[in-house]
Fold this sequence. Notes:
Layout: E1 10-13, E2 19-20, E3 26-28, E4 33-35, E5 40-48, E6 55-56, H1 58-63, E7 67-73, E8 82-88, H2 101-105, E9 109-115, H3 146-173, H4 184-188, H5 192-199, H6 207-214, H7 217-232, H8 243-247, E10 263-266, E11 268-275, E12 281-285, E13 294-295, E14 306-312, E15 320-328, E16 335-340, H9 358-368, E17 388-391, E18 396-399, E19 413-414, E20 420-424, E21 427-436, E22 445-458, E23 467-481
Parallel strand pairs: 17-22
Antiparallel strand pairs: 1-2, 1-23, 3-4, 5-6, 5-11, 7-10, 8-9, 11-12, 12-13, 14-15, 15-21, 16-18, 16-22, 17-21, 19-20, 20-21, 22-23
Amino acid sequence: MAYLTQPDYVKYACSCGQIKPITSLYFCRHCLQIRCGFCICHEVDSHYCANCLENMPSSEARLKKNRCSSCFDCPSCFHTLSTRATLAQPRQTPEQGSGDSKVENKQAKKMYYLSCFNCRWTSRDVGIPDQPVASGGWPERVNPNATRINQLLDYYKAIAQQEKQEKLDRERKKFAIRGKYITLTDKTGLTGAMARNIAGLPSSESTMSAIANFVPSEASADVEELSEDFYTKELNLNQMTSMPQRLAAPEWQPSSVSRLYPIAKLLSVKRSQRCRACDHNLTKPEYNPGSIKFKIELLAFYHVPEVKIISYEPIKPGCTSALLLKLTNPTGHEMQVRLLQPEEVPDTEDRLEEPKSLEKSLEKSLNLEKDNLWYETVQRKADVTATCRVVTPDVTLTLAQRDDAAEYDDDATHDANDIILWRKSNKLALRLQVSCGAEVGAASAAEAALALQYRYRNTVPAAHEPRDHTLHATLLLQLGHVSG
């Protein structure tokens, strides 16, 4: 069933062979195929903070290490910190007397500090001074090994750039050339001991001394404090940090709660999802100021008939049980649906053929020169091996178009039919039979496979009239376990 928080009793087969619920699938209106998360390309459009909704380009987000400079998370419970205001009285200087009128005329200054409404943690607990501004003025902690890490990053970026240039030179010559460098020493010009010393790793002779020198000063202070407390007095577990709290700050990894500092909030991304086969957008975010909404009309449950399980009788080996299903037409056009067996689904679909033009032909010829093997989708048939079989009637069912106003109708229309139970707007309830083989053992999973053949009206080409296409979808029904 198409529920986000409940088990997936009905799953659909993707064109790549994956079996997923309809809420996790997409539908491409250009190649008329069901796509899953592995069949689409995820493209990051922009970054934003989910708390203050500040948008920033990718270059700025990279400089800020994908974190917001104004919003913080609690280092104790990881909830979002709130900014609290307080009034601070001005301090009297020694030069001013106790009866100075200037001190009496001074007004209290508004100061701000961070507070967590969940665990009552405040920035005052770790000695962070109050700030005169509400956002943007909080002190940033500097990693003691930041300079060394930046040097290593620059060094290996240069090596990667050199390797990339060598690869391009080899591809340009159109034949394989033996590597210029045979060993790591010839490539970098350094011996193994020199490379270990530059990277800060311990050598074989002075392992313990190198490890002691490589530990950051703040981390070594924490270790010494912890060892002192361990040998001199009993440990207070309430003052010790947990493993998630330490891993939230990997640069420092504090061992005491008195060293917990606010964590800058991670940025979220606005992403577009593109079909790998036809290179068209499936979802794209809206670019309104302060908006983080997405256009999700290309999700599968807006274009593919949705199947839900109403109820079913206990499945027994060698017996036939009743199964009640509900079909829903999510489109704005009338739809004809037929029930088939999975083996009756043809290999070729009735896809939309785009009109040929000079620009399309030129683009196709240019794409042939590129290596797009990583970009191609995988086409294979889904493995829907089931222990039960649904008896499919040889009838064509008609589903009305979607009408939001008809959802408030009082009664449903009951048909005098052995298959159709009732109709209501774009919904239809069916009574089917499920047969289970006698060789199926008790307590095994009861799964039934079913295929849908439906007529879909595509309205994508605006310059042409809408066309109807015959499409297929394969389903896998979870019917619990086989009774003894």
